[in-house]
Specification:
about 220 residues, mainly alpha, two-stranded antiparallel ribbon, 2 strands, globular
Length: about 220
């Protein structure tokens, strides 16, 4: 979204153990869910230098950017986009848990690996390696095939008007999907390919490639 709107920026990459102390030190406070439980510190987070504003989480950041830099516009919500985001989260979440979570540790520094393993295994209740069962992984992807295909078809609803979810111009949904796919690609090319074999996923990803050229 920053690249699409041509907003100048500089990226500071954080190791997993540094996210909470860094954001806490900047004065960011996680919100709470309906039960009063505090959310975790997370990235992305931004500092808007002109107003000295700090915030985290993709959607609040997107709303801030859209209100501060309205041109070119990026639709943040739509009935179709909301449906795609919800269904994509549901189906991709199932397979990413078994395919990406145990492999993500392989791209981390030793210090981040230690933190990641400790945090994820405490949450899972077992070793990361226990998720890596080739037969079960294949079964998981086969089980979500119809759902992946259905979401892919939804992404192509307006393909006659353009390559994006809503047609000729990108929306927040396109950037959400592309970011998710790029994360998969960074962790494991094979997992990425399992997604983009569906034309809707590949179409959105390729359409957004020009907005991923600058990453720092």
């Amino acid at each position: 979204m920053l690249n699409y709107k041509r907003i100048p920026y500089r990226t500071i990459f954080l190791e997993f153990p540094d996210i909470e102390p860094t954001l806490n030190g900047l004065g960011l406070v996680p919100g709470e869910d309906a039960s009063g439980n505090k959310h975790k510190y997370t990235v992305p987070a931004i500092q808007h230098v002109p107003t000295d504003t700090y915030m985290m989480d993709s959607l609040p950041i997107a709303h801030f950017l859209e209100s501060t830099y309205p041109d070119p516009p990026v639709p943040l919500t739509s009935e179709l986009g909301s449906e795609i985001e919800a269904k994509a989260r549901a189906v991709m979440g199932k397979v990413f848990r078994t395919s990406l979570v145990p492999r993500e540790i392989n791209i981390l520094s030793p210090r981040a690996q230690e933190y990641f393993r400790r945090a994820r295994e405490a949450s899972l209740g077992h070793r990361l390696e226990d998720l890596l069962d080739v037969d079960k992984e294949e079964e998981s992807w086969t089980a979500v095939g119809d759902c992946m295909r259905a979401v892919s078809e939804l992404m192509q609803t307006h393909k006659a008007e353009g390559p994006f979810v809503l047609g000729a111009r990108p929306s927040y949904t396109d950037f959400f999907l592309t970011g998710t796919l790029q994360f998969a690609r960074v962790v494991d090319e094979g997992v990425f390919q399992r997604n983009v074999k569906y034309p809707g996923y590949m179409g959105v990803y390729e359409a957004c490639l020009p907005y991923m050229e600058k990453q720092d």
